[in-house]
Amino acid sequence: MGEETSKKRQYLYGLILFSILFSVLIFNVSQHKRICQPVVIKRILSKKNRPTPKLWKELLGHGRRIAENDPRQISMPVSRVETIKTLSDTPIAEQSTETLANYLNSYMRKIDSQDLVSLQKNIAVADEIILRAPESYSGHKAKLIMLLVQEAKFKQKIEDYDVNSLLSSMADFDVSHNTQAIKEAILISNANNEIQKLDDDLTDIYGEKEDLEMQLSSMDLEQLSSATAQFLKNRLAYLSVEEQRLFERIIILERNIEEGELLPANALNEDLIHIPFLRMLARSDFDEVISNAENFIDQFPDSPIGYFYLVKTLRILDREDEALTLILNSGLSKEALSAIQMNLERFENVDPRAYWKMLKF
Q1: 276-303 mean pLDDT
Q2: CA 55 centroid distance within chain
Q3: 3-state DSSP call for residue 184?
């Protein structure tokens, strides 16, 4: 009887041990198989024959007539005053696409000063634009930025699926053969990027021109003949000339692109790869950063992106020797090593939790 009980007990212990080992094995396999989102994005970016996006300026109504097959759209650009007034009075679903795009465009310029309520309202605006124009890169980009701001600034929970699906949709567009599309694809500020500098200058010009036009439109006939009005008109004329100069520079860049000249990496939509890493760093999820960076390096050993986040994280954890050994054994080109060093220096004093401030619409 005692021997039989002993055998049963041994069998039970063995079964428990097997269950524990099996559970550990399943956990490790599931961890290993977890999707590495930076790798997913990089693979999408590497695909050929991707569709080109619909340019944002087309939705804004700049220099074109709106497509006739959308009865909710209108044929002339909408002023900022009219946009804000109509959007506050009429449900979003009943607004023209152009009105919504102009409203969202105005909002995204000052997103860092907006509250949570207005942010959530404009996410709904972006959703409506994406519904009507799924081929709009900037429609997806606006929603992505707002979700990230909602998460990082306002500490609201955002589902990974929502962010990752937007990143995948944006990566699926080919932005490399159109200067305007490349400008729209710049997501993370980089003062050394000439395309972004042009984009910043043009944005400033658009904003100032709209302000001047609003001031002039509010004047009566007598005021329009005043010295103040003349000054505003002269300033408008100057800005138009400056705008033309910038566009001429863009034409040169576009010609270079057509002739095969390579642009900086972030101008070719690789900014999207950084977003998953930045979210992990903002959450101080350093193990996840290291795991994803190592996976990225395994898949794309010639890209400096994985090395940058791995080195940055090791330095945060005071593991300088490991970071140095990693770089010495990387086999990266001098250009790639230089890019890593430049970015490490540039972001050395940047709080990872404030990465949302670097996002650019």
Answers
A1: 96
A2: 16
A3: helix
Residue 148 corresponds to which tokens in the numbers above? 């990230």
Question: DSSP character for 153?
Answer: T
User: How far, in Å, CA of 302 to CA of 155, rounded?
Assistant: 35
pTM of the model: 0.70
Q: Which two tokens stand for residue 118?
A: 């207005």
Relative orientation angle of helices 271-282 and 286-299, to the nearest 10 degrees: 150
pLDDT per position as a tens digit, 103-141:
999 999 888 888 999 999 999 999 999 999 999 999 999
Write out the two tokens for 81. Answer: 């005053």
More confident residue, 22 or 143: 143
Q: 260 — alpha (psi -120 to 50), left (phi > 0) or beta?
A: left
Q: Which residue type sits at 135?
A: E
DSSP secondary-structure letter at 92?
Answer: G
Please give the pLDDT value at position 255. 60
Which of 76-80, 186-190, 341-345 has the largest mean confidence? 341-345
Q: In this structure, which amino acid lies at residue 201?
A: D
- The tokens for 106 are 């105005």
**Alpha-carbon distance 224 to 346, whole Å?**
48
- By C-alpha distance, which of 91, 165, 172 is closest to 128? 91
The SS3 assignment for 294 reads helix
Residue 361 identity (one-letter amino acid) = F
Instruction: Fill in the amino acid letter for 170.
Output: M
The residues facing 171 across adjacent strands are none
Q: What b/e sequence results for 139-174 when a residue is b if at least 16 CB atoms lie within 10 Å of its CB, and e otherwise? A: bbbbbbbbbbbbbbbeeeebeeeebbebbebbbbbb
Which two structure tokens, joined as six digits, stand for 328? 């010495």
Q: What is the pLDDT of residues 196-230, one digit of tens each?
A: 567 678 878 888 998 899 999 999 888 888 999 99
Question: Whole-angstrom Cα distance, residue 234 to residue 241?
Answer: 11
